[in-house]
């Protein structure tokens, strides 16, 4: 994986992680939100229940106080006498629970208020001098209402009190108002009661204007401010809403902040005097559970996110480092730090996509193996490094180089000019040559190099495959040129040559394919007729091999025989051809054709093989072919080593019945001497004698031919002239006494089947 891809993947993973985490976070928030809402709803219901309890208790207290006073009023009505003793008696009887601090009576429309105070009769007081609250409720009671006053400071008792007033009837007429005054102890006690352990209520009691009636002792909203609307913990806006709600006598729930925390705040109407209970739960800091849960989740989430991202990044760094190491191993030569071949190939591939003007030069150090021994490994490595440095200095920005296989350097040059390329490579070689001088060594560093010019111009936007192929071709050509430079001397530079390459390529193909071709019968028997010039008939033929491949292409012997002669395969092929000839003759004889002599070309290799004659006999025996029908064509080169030796072999073949023909006579340094000394049956004058203008113009050549033929005749050797291409040729060779003619004039070599059709006659 390359770095870019890795980076992309890391970014993807990171984004995915973040996205998944955020999703989880959102889910947790939603869950928390619902949980909290549910919790809050149930909490509010609980609170409401507590508040109701307070409310009921307080109202009960009112009702019982009021009830007590009304009972007392009834008592006064019944006795129709109003004395302070009566009143005291009433108080004693009824006020066990109600605990009025004092009672008072004020006759309707009178200003005289008669008051009992701790069972002692006081003087009559003037109503108009009493507290405004007292005056109001007494007057209301005269009108028939049972009323409760607001809280007020009793001057005499020196404490905050609340007063009740009820009408006192005489039959159906109101006689006056009965007044009961109570301190707030009972209410305060109620308000300060802690209902449940989890909830610690702060309950204050305010009138419609927000003024405190009474309060719990440690309220958050300090009653000392006198009015709840003086508090700072509620906003003006909130206060306006509360005022509105209170004016309408509706309950209201809100929150307030105190010391950075939020608390619930309930306004519950008391159905009396426009009073309200103002409640809060000091233990419940509203936002805290939600807030803290959110906070915990968010903090946990960010920790997890940070950890995940950290591990991703750490992992990525590790991977990248590893990757770099791998890339380093995969793409760089650890010794010189230059590219290695796979990387260079990649680079070439990319460069060729945009520019075809390139050549590749490959240089190799001669005898580097010995240098390792002479200089020692370390110094030899030093030389390689120095060469890499020289290359680095010599190449341009658009050029590349690499080291490959110890001592080979590939250089991609941005030129297609052979002269320029050679000059640059030679310059590099010269610089490398100076290295040994610098090292005070006498051993010269010489190089050889191959250069190939890029033959391919890629189309625009070429894909990797075609660019890769182009790179491969270029490198391959460079390597081919280098191989040919190895044979040269010193700093040789050889350019890639297509024809040499093709020939070599074919040769390689031929060599790698020959055995298979033989076993699969791709070598075919072709025959070229030989005309008997005395009878004017085709009475012999020469077997010539053709390689016809599976795909139908034909390869001529000129292309493969020399190769087979070198690699030894020719001996096998020649025997195979003898076999093909015998098989064919057998078929023809079986088919009733008159048999005809067939010449077979024999290579030097085969001729000296110890089992040669035996093999030949085996074949002729197998197909029961009279050996006199088989003529062995040999080349004069066979006699080069020893004529005697050759004659020995020939006589063995003669003994077995085979005939011997000397092929291509006159093509090399033939000597007439050879004709006289070799025990041959036939000589074939090379087609070079008749070749074109030379023969027409060169009278001497004609004389030579004439004399060779005459000599052969005298030595009882048959003569065949090859290369008869025209009637002129034929009449000339007949005139000079040649016995046989062979050539395109009669026929080109043709397949055995065609030969059969054209030249064989059934025996009569
Ligand atoms: P070669 O033995 O001298 O065979 C004669 C060659 O001359 C044949 O080429 C033939 O096609 C060609 N030829 C015949 N008439 C004329 C003509 O009128 N004008 C011209 N210009 N050429 C003519 P081919 O078949 O290509 O064979 C080339 C050579 O390959 C042969 O030369 C022979 O040395 C060798 N060869 C062919 N078959 C075999 C084989 O089975 N074994 C061995 N060892 N060598 C073979
Ligand atoms: Ca021949
Ligand atoms: Ca020949």
TrEMBL record:
Molecular functions per Gene Ontology: cyclic-guanylate-specific phosphodiesterase activity
Domain GGDEF: 356-498
Domain (EAL) ranges: 507-763
Keywords: Membrane, Transmembrane, Transmembrane helix
CDD domains recorded: EAL, GGDEF
Regions crossing the membrane: 12-35, 290-316
Any Pfam family the entry gives: GGDEF
SMART domains referenced in this protein's UniProt entry, alphabetically: EAL (SM00052), GGDEF (SM00267)
Entry protein name: EAL domain-containing protein
């Amino acid at each position: 994986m390359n770095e870019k891809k890795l980076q992309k993947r890391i970014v993807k993973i990171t984004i995915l992680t973040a996205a998944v985490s955020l999703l989880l976070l959102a889910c947790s928030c939603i869950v928390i939100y619902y949980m909290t809402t549910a919790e809050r709803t149930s909490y509010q219901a609980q609170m409401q229940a507590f508040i109701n309890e307070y409310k009921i208790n307080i109202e009960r207290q009112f009702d019982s106080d009021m009830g007590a006073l009304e009972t007392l009023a009834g008592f006064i009505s019944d006795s129709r006498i109003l004395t302070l003793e009566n009143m005291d008696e009433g108080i004693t009887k009824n006020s066990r629970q109600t605990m009025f601090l004092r009672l008072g009576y004020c006759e309707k429309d009178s200003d005289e208020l008669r008051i009992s105070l701790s069972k002692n009769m006081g003087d009559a007081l003037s109503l108009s001098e009493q507290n405004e609250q007292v005056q109001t409720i007494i007057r209301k009671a005269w009108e028939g209402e049972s009323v409760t006053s607001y809280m007020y400071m009793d001057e005499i008792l020196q404490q905050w009190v609340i007063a009740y007033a009820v009408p006192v009837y005489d039959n159906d007429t109101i006689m006056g108002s009965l007044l009961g005054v109570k301190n707030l102890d009972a209410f305060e006690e109620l308000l300060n009661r802690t209902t449940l352990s989890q909830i610690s209520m702060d309950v204050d009691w305010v009138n419609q204007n927000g003024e405190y009636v009474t309060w719990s002792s440690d309220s958050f909203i300090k009653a000392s401010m006198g009015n709840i609307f003086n508090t700072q913990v509620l906003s003006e806006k909130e206060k306006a809403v509360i005022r509105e709600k209170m004016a309408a006598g509706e309950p209201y729930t809100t929150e307030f902040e105190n010391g950075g925390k939020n608390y619930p705040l309930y306004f519950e109407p008391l159905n009396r005097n426009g009073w309200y209970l103002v409640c809060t739960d000091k233990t419940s800091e509203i936002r805290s559970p939600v807030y803290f849960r959110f906070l915990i989740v968010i903090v946990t989430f960010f920790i997890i996110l940070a950890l995940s991202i950290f591990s991703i990044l750490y992992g990525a760094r590790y991977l990248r480092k590893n990757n770099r190491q791998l890339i380093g191993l995969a793409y760089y030569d650890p010794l010189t730090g230059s590219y290695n071949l796979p990387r260079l190939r990649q680079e070439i591939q990319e460069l060729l996509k945009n520019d075809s003007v390139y050549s590749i030069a490959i240089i190799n150090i001669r005898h580097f193996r010995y240098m390792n021994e002479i200089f020692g490994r370390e110094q030899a490595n030093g030389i390689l490094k120095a060469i890499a440095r020289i290359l680095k200095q010599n190449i341009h920005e658009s050029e590349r180089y690499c080291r490959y296989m110890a001592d080979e350097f590939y250089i991609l040059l941005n030129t297609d000019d052979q002269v320029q390329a050679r000059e640059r490579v030679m310059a590099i070689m010269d610089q490398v040559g100076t290295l040994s001088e610098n090292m005070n060594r006498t051993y010269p560093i010489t190089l050889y190099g191959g250069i190939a010019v890029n033959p391919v111009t890629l189309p625009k936007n070429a894909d990797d495959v075609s660019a890769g192929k182009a790179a491969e071709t270029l490198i391959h050509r460079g390597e081919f040129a280098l191989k040919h430079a190895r044979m040269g001397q010193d700093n040789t530079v050889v350019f890639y040559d297509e024809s040499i390459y093709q020939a070599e390529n074919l040769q390689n193909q031929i060599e790698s394919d020959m055995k298979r071709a033989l076993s699969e019968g791709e070598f075919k028997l072709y025959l070229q007729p030989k005309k008997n010039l005395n009878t004017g008939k085709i009475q012999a033929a020469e077997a010539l091999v053709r390689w016809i491949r599976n795909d139908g292409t034909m390869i001529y012997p000129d292309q493969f025989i020399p190769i087979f002669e070198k690699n030894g395969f020719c001996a096998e092929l020649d025997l195979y051809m003898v076999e093909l000839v015998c098989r064919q003759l057998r078929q023809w004889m079986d088919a009733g054709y008159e048999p005809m002599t067939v010449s077979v070309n024999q290579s030097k290799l085969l001729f000296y093989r110890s089992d040669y004659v035996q093999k030949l006999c085996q074949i002729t025996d197998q197909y029961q072919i009279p050996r006199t029908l088989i003529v062995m064509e040999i080349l004069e080169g066979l006699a080069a080593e020893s004529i005697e030796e050759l004659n020995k072999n020939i006589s063995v073949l003669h003994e077995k019945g085979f005939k011997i023909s000397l092929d291509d006579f006159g093509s090399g340094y033939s000597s007439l001497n050879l004709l006289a000394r070799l025990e041959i049956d036939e000589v074939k004058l090379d087609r070079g004698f008749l070749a074109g203008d030379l023969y027409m113009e060169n009278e001497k050549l004609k004389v030579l031919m004439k004399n060779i033929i005459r000599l052969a005749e005298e030595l009882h050797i048959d003569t065949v002239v090859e290369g008869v291409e025209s009637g002129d040729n034929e009449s000339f060779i007949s005139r000079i006494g040649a016995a046989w003619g062979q050539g395109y004039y009669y026929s080109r070599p043709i397949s055995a089947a065609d030969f059969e059709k054209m030249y064989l006659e059934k025996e009569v």
